[in-house]
Specification:
- This protein folds into two domains: 148 residues, D-Maltodextrin-Binding Protein, domain 2, CATH 3.40.190; 86 residues, D-Maltodextrin-Binding Protein, domain 2 (3-Layer(aba) Sandwich), CATH 3.40.190.10.
- By secondary structure, the chain is of the alpha/beta class.
- The longest helix is centred in the last third of the chain and has 16 residues.
- α4 packs across α9.
- The protein contains ten helices and 13 strands.
- The strands form four sheets. A five-stranded mixed β-sheet has the order 10-9-11-8-12, sandwiched between helices. Strands 5, 6, 7 and 13 form a four-stranded antiparallel β-sheet that branches.
Length: 268
């Protein structure tokens, strides 16, 4: 695939960090009325906030909806309602949207969310990994030569961590641009999330990337993923938790992730 054709599938607007949705959600007015399970059932719908052009997360159009949409539909189904979507790309749109649910929220016990957001039980473990080309001889971060560049997201924690360790880094705005540069041999490695690599490999079976768990010992670079509920009552929280539990047990979440090239990892 040429560089031009590779760029064609990459979304111009996407979620560049797992926490992006949560940081925007926190801008809601925490004093607003709680959303109850009874109100959701009476309305017949659970509303998910998602980006309209952010595959593999979500997409408003195209052949696949994104795993957030598929997960949201299954959660709504478990509650006995349909899923409606609010397409948002900015903080202003988030404040105006009437959302019940956001997905891919970082769940940390030491940093509970604010703004009336409640985090569900986690369903996935993510973080930062080192990606290299399949023909690379690298087996660890230390095995890279001192001159070999590692692609990082500009301003990210991993970029600072690598910089302090003396690694030579190349900054990028988006993770999909990092893995594209890696595949095109512009850099030697990429510090990105496994979801980005999984989606890239699904789209580029002719030149898959290999993952190296180079940051497993760094707690700041590994995290649990959960759903975020906007001002839920206890029954709505319990209902969504139960839905996630059932979807983990019967393999629904794993199957949805697999359709996007992503391996479900159990939370810790």
């Amino acid at each position: 695939m040429t560089k031009a054709s590779s760029a064609a599938w990459r979304p111009r607007y996407r979620l560049i960090r797992y926490a992006a949705s949560l940081s925007l959600v926190m801008l809601w007015n925490a004093s607003a009325d709680a959303r109850s399970l009874e109100a959701v059932i009476e309305r017949g719908a659970l509303t998910l906030c998602a980006s309209p052009n952010a595959l593999p997360f979500a997409s408003k159009s195209g052949p696949v909806p994104g795993f957030q949409i598929e997960l949201g539909e299954k959660i709504a189904e478990q509650l006995g309602v349909k899923l409606t979507r609010e397409w948002v790309v900015s903080a202003i749109q988030y404040r105006r949207a009437d959302c019940d649910l956001v997905l891919d929220v970082i769940a940390r016990k030491d940093a509970p969310p604010a703004g009336g957001v409640r985090v569900t039980r986690p369903y996935h473990r993510s973080g930062v990994v080192l990606a290299v080309r399949s023909d690379s001889k690298a087996s660890s971060l230390a095995s890279l030569d001192s001159y070999q560049r590692v692609g990082v997201q500009v301003g990210s924690l991993v970029s600072m961590t690598l910089g302090k360790g003396g690694a030579v880094t190349s900054p990028f705005v988006y993770e999909d641009d990092i893995v594209a540069a890696l595949a095109n041999r512009e850099i030697e490695a990429a510090a990105v999330t496994p979801m980005t690599v999984g989606w890239f490999n699904l789209q580029h079976a002719d030149k898959p990337l290999r993952l190296i768990p180079a940051f497993e010992s760094d707690q700041d670079l590994n995290w649990n993923i959960a759903a975020g509920l906007i001002r839920p009552d206890d029954k709505l929280q319990q209902g969504v938790d139960a839905a996630i539990e059932a979807m983990l047990a019967d393999g629904t979440i794993a199957r949805i992730y697999a359709r996007y090239g992503i391996e479900l990892r159990p939370p810790q």
